[in-house]
Amino acid sequence: MSDKVLLDYGSGGRASQRLISDLFLNYLGNDELNRLNDAAELTMSGRVAMSTDSFVVDPIFFPGGNIGSLAVHGTVNDVAMMGAIPRHITCAYILEEGLPMDDLEKIVKAMGQAAENAGVTIVSGDTKVVPKGAVDKIFINTTGVGDIIADPAPSGDAARPGDAVLISGTIGDHGLTILGTREGLDFEAKVESDSAALNHLLVRLVQELPEVHVLRDPTRGGLATTLNEITVSSNVCCELVENSLPIRPEVKGGCSILGLDPLYLANEGKFLCILPEEYVEQALEIMQSDPLGKNACQIGRMTDANPGKVVLETPLGGKRLLNMLEGEQLPRIC
Length: 334
Fold this sequence. Notes:
Largest sheet: 7 strands, mixed
Oligomer: single chain
Domain PurM-like N-terminal: 38-146
InterPro entries: HypE (IPR011854), PurM-like_C_dom (IPR010918), PurM-like_C_sf (IPR036676), PurM-like_N (IPR016188), PurM-like_N_sf (IPR036921)
Domain PurM-like C-terminal: 160-311
Strand content: 15-25%
Family: Belongs to the HypE family.
Protein name: Carbamoyl phosphate phosphatase, hydrogenase 3 maturation protein
């Protein structure tokens, strides 16, 4: 193969077949994908969760991952937030002519490793090559499906007054990492994306806890925006305690320098868990026993005081309203 992606690789001819066999099947291959049918034959049981997403992150490589691993993590997590076991993923690559083949191989390899670690199979895919300048290096679209095991399935409109609000770990890591890498910023302390597949931990939660009302990953728009979406859908108020929010000192410092609020920065390896107060201790024990939830903590509770609002209690005892993000704080974050 050439050392760069050529338009010929998207033609459907011999060059396309070489790209598929030498690269994609080499890192993503399995019994179903290797059949190279136009569609995958799947066996699912009962209720199914399905999610689709597109990944256009810039830069495509960053501390803690790349666009390939991120695509798997993002889709696996979205399916798992429905109280489901992710089973299968499809992926479509849109490649810019001239993309270095070494870069593409690193991305495909990372995607295959991420899928293996998450326990999902990539069962179908597509590749398109567009002329130079028609797309920025590489875009990836993924769709994931899984078996729902929670009954009822967690939902963004199921939060209730009296529920506790838990977060699985520190916030703002991914957003600050992408911004710093994109702009070539050198922070005093190392920052790294939290991109990770959360499905194994989430499956434990829904299997071992008697009741979970909401599971949600605070990606674009960050924690504040995600909680606003939940409070509006559920017609409740979320009261957060600022001192309880887990934020790494390096993220706090970077945000202070850049004038950013970590509450609105994207996360790619954290989740919110909203459930009855009586199950908090059990939930935190499960979360903290996993490396991806070692910093889990309670950050607030749901009330009926101001439905549809998110209120933050400051260290001085004052309160301020956290609105949904206005505009795009940081485009192409995922």
